[in-house]
Structure formats: C-alpha cells, structure tokens
Here is the input.
Amino acid sequence: MYEWPLEVPYEEYIRLYFLERTLRQFVLICLSKINEQWWKTRVPRDVRDQAEERKAEEEQKLKPTINLHPLWYVDFYDYVKIITRKDNWNDIFKEIFVNKDNFKVTLMKLVPLRNKIAHMRPLSIREKKNLDALSEDILAPIWNFYNKLYVETAEKLIDCREFLNAEEILKKGYNETSGDAWIAYKLGELYFHTGRLEEAREWLTIAKTYLPLPRYKKLVKEKLIQLDQKIKLAATKKCPQCGNIVSRKHNFCGVCGYRF
Here is the structure.
C-alpha cells in the first residue's frame, strides 16, 4: 500500500534554491570579468542553445514578469560543462575548486537529491546529511573566494577602525553577488560591533533565512541571541541602592523606591 509523506522538504528546497542561485551567480560574476560576450564565448554551444530554447518556450506560454538571463535556464548538471570547460577551468575555476574530478563527482551526487527536492519528495536522514556535505563542498570554495574579494578587505578596514569604508565594501559585495547570505552575516556582525543594533538584526535575519547550511545557521542564531542580550542591556540600568534592574525610561526603582 502506498504511503503519503507528511513531511514537506521546505528547508531542503530553500537550501537547494540558494545553492543553485549562488553557483549560478558565481559563474556569471567570474565569466563576465573575462569579457562582455562571455555567454557566447565561454558557454558550450549545446548548453547555450538549450537554455535559450527553454527561455523562448516559457515566454511563449507564460507572460514574463522578469527578463531573466538565459543562464537561469541551464540544467543543474550543465554547470559541470561550463565550469570544467578547458579554458574556463584553466583561467578561473581551477584556482577555486582545485580538483576537476572531485567537482564533477560532487555535482553528479547532488543531481538525484536535487531532482527529489524539486519534485517535493522528502529526503531520508542519510540523504539530508549528504545534501549538507555535498552543498558545503560546492559553497565553501565560493565563500572563500568572496571572503578574499570582499570580507577580508572589509575586516582589514575594521581593524583600522575604518567602519564606513568596510560597510561600503560589504554592501558592494552583497549587491554584486545578488544577495550572498554570508556577506549579509558579515554586515550584521559589523553593525553589531559598532552599536547599530537594529541594522544588525535586519542583516542577521537575512543571513538566518538564507544561509543554506545548518552550522552557519547556528552561528547566526547564536549572534542573534547575543544581539537580544545587548539590546536588553542597552534598554536597562541598575539601581545603585539595591541592584534591581529597571528600564532606562524610569527614574526610580520599583523595589526599593530609590530615585536616580
């Protein structure tokens, strides 16, 4: 007898979406630095033709609200063809992903998980663990690249107390990566340490929502707990007579009646 799954894999779906979006945006950033015609000169012909056909077919059937780049229409495994293409690999991606065969194998293992999630079929516990590990194998090198390009530069400025310049670098990185969640986390950290607490909450919330790996989500949750404690501390003061904690809005202690 068939079973109807009660679990909806929404967390895995969001994780997969941002894995694909991060990989897609990363390819776009890297190849567009080579030349403006990268779509024609650096994407294999068969991948390009199929993506353009899918885009045209969709636009015929549905009224498009956003004019997406054809890169949004490539198959998941097509990223292997683009990234491991000889000129792309040697010029850009070898330095980032290091081992071509390992990269191919990782994407191949992700494909069946990706297809299962895309059709809203629940994953087993083992499959969820595999999704986490394989996603990290793809995302960690990309985040290392973004760290060198944006985060490390910003952190050097922070060390020199050039907070506004650091903020500018991180926001530039966030915009250029179309909203990378790790950079959002770093913006939250910056605002946390400079006392801009509501802005810190805004950026940490973005990071919590969109960071695709559990251990990074845990990192953000811990920072949000610290933020709540800091906001609470900033909103209260201690009675100098009895030590009771009262709101900064009050000028007397509700326990001992001392006015201050």
In short: The two ends are 73 Å apart (CA to CA). The chain is about 70% helix and 0% strand. The beta strands are 236-238, 245-247.
